[in-house]
Write a structure and sequence with these properties.
Elements (H helix, E strand, L loop, with lengths): L3 E7 L6 E3 L7 H6 L6 E3 L6 E3 L5 E5 L2 E4 L4
Antiparallel strand pairs: 1-2, 1-5, 3-4, 5-6
Length: 70
């Protein structure tokens, strides 16, 4: 299991990469998580944006994940 180093959410409005408030211990935990309906406020544009796997990027110790909307 790869350890998660960083998780960022891509703001749908301004494109800013926001450090995620949701943390994961490892790749298996991230893959098993259902992240539907979560929102966060972008610190740059102040608008609410989705916090789902589709607009996340995750860096693991040995690789990474990029959602389909990023």
């Amino acid at each position: 299991m790869s350890k998660v180093k960083e998780v960022h959410v891509h703001c749908a409005h301004c494109g800013f990469w926001i450090p995620s408030p949701i943390m994961f211990g490892g790749e298996e935990t991230f893959n098993a998580s259902l992240l539907i309906g979560n929102n966060l406020q972008c610190p740059k544009c102040q608008k609410m944006t989705n916090c789902n796997k589709e607009n996340m990027r995750v860096r693991y110790e040995d690789g990474g994940f990029v959602g389909t909307d990023t």
